[in-house]
Amino acid sequence: MERINQKNQKNVTKGVTFGVTNGRHEWASRFGVTFRNFALLLLLLLLSSCSLPPTLPLPPGGAGEANPELRTNAAALEKWQDMRFGMFVHWGPVALKGTEIGWSRGREIPFNTYDSLYMQFNPVNFDANEWISIAKEAGMKYFVITSKHHDGFSIFHSDYTEYDIANTPIKRDLMKEMQLACEDQGIMFSTYYSVLDWYHPHYTTRYRNEPRPIEDSNMDIYKQFLFDQVGELITKYNTNLIWFDGQWEASWTHEMGMELYQYCRDLNDDLIINNRVDKGFKGMAGMTDSIAKYAGDYGTPEQRIGGFNNTYPWESCITICKQWAWKPDDQLKSVQECIHTLIKTIGGDGNLLLNVGPMPDGRIEERQVEVLREIGAWVKTNEAGIYGSRGGPYMPTEELACTYNGKNLYLFVMGDSREIVVPALEGVKIRKARLIGDAHRDASRDASRDASRDAWVKIVEEEGNWVFVLPDELPSDVANVIEVRTNSYLAEIEPVEL
Ligand code: JFZ
Questions:
Q1: How far does the centroid of ligand 1 lie from the alpha carbon of residue 399, in Å?
Q2: What pTM did the predictor assign?
Q3: Mutational pocket test of ligand 1: of 205, 324, 353, 355, the residue with most ligand atoms within 8 Å of the beta carbon
Q4: Which of 30, 93, 290, 388 has the fewest CB atoms below 10 angstroms from its CB?
Q5: Residue 42 has what pLDDT?
Q6: pLDDT of residue 460
């Protein structure tokens, strides 16, 4: 089934550079250019059988122009998109200093001092199961650990370097422990890997005028090391996703990016690979400018919520504090800010990768854990509109975001308005709307209450708009979710700007 789909996709995508604002069904309509009559027939068929869920064509990413046949694995990608929310962890010996990982090497911390920190890195309070249960309790479904950041330190047992966790006082393979904890607890294990390595003698760019001579550096030797280590992540640690980074320096080329993508996918056909494997990533907006040219399965907006896009998958990575790595008393975001960020991200059809930086002793700060727990409680209540959903058809605003799942629409209300007005969707009929987590609804199980009055949100249709009238008392003071049950599969609807 998967294979057949990929074949079809090849027909559809040949020589096409995908736009970023079209609906998913756009790919299907491209099919119609060559087989117009067939497409018309298909359309009629679709219209007459609207009780069947629509089958969606493959997403457009893949290995780039070097191998246009190798497309993103649609099933793996959709599974990952369904997760919507993951935990990012930036951690390493630098936590001992509380400065930024990678970037503080040769800046706040002298090169030699930074490069010796690993000799004191002894996180005796590290408990992988604890970390993963914190992620799980926050409602996160996947986990991404910095296996090697720009500073070159490997937080796993690597056969290809001595600069790894095996040579610290703790000695234990902490990344293996994280992998096993993820597998035990049903969280998707994933790894971050920086292709840029300011520590490796053969990497051919130096950071901040580091004095080591560049003349003896050799990118071919470094590349072999990198491929070997990435091979370890895939074969020894069963990473399900690799979050590459550091592709922007001149040492890393478009050809290397495409080659690395192909190498990874050859080792594991289900692997998900972000777009920083190659040079297509542009600015902090993080999307790929030509998906046919550059390798990568999804876009990576950084420290910002990506713009609405339901044609090229994306994931915003955002820190819970300010720094990626742990910093004492770093400014922590509020529960409300984190939840609104999650809502606007999924409303734009993206995933959110929320970053925490654990302390040098191996624990995650208690105040961060508290925020994560509160996020998790809210997510749990409203999960029907989160997991497995897609963003749209209404595009997010500051006050309102929307997701859909099958025939259900989820309106995430962030303001405190009691009347939510949206343009009615053409051809869609509402059956019922309920306020998720409404205490009244829960009480409606009690036979002594009038369930029909309390359980459902009142809907008024006026002048082409739908108006949802909320009760005075709302279940959450952060954000409330209206579940709207309709008669139509909503994936077919064009995005609507509010
Ligand atoms: C990169 C990393 O440098 C950062 O430490 C973190 O891992 C993040 C997820 O990814 O972020 C960047 C990338 C590029 C620049 C700054 C931060 N840049 O070019 O200035």
A1: 30
A2: 0.88
A3: 324
A4: 290
A5: 54
A6: 93
> What would the pLDDT profile of 318-372 be if each residue is shown by its tens digit?
999 999 999 999 999 999 999 999 999 999 999 999 999 999 999 999 999 999 9
CA–centroid distance, residue 213 to ligand 1 (Å): 25
- Nearest-Å Rg of the Cα atoms of the chain is 24
Question: 195 CB less than 6 Å from ligand 1?
Answer: no
Does 442 have pLDDT greater than 90? no
Q: Is 245 in the pocket of ligand 1 (CB under 6 A)?
A: yes
Instruction: Please name each of the domains of the chain with its CATH number.
Output: 2-48 (no CATH), 74-381 (3.20.20.80), 390-492 (2.60.40.1180)
Q: Which two tokens stand for residue 480?
A: 């409330």
Contact indicator for 321, 331 with CB cutoff of 8 Å: yes
Q: Of all atoms in ligand 1, which is nearest to the CA of residue 355?
A: 9
Pairing of strands 281-282, 272-273: unpaired
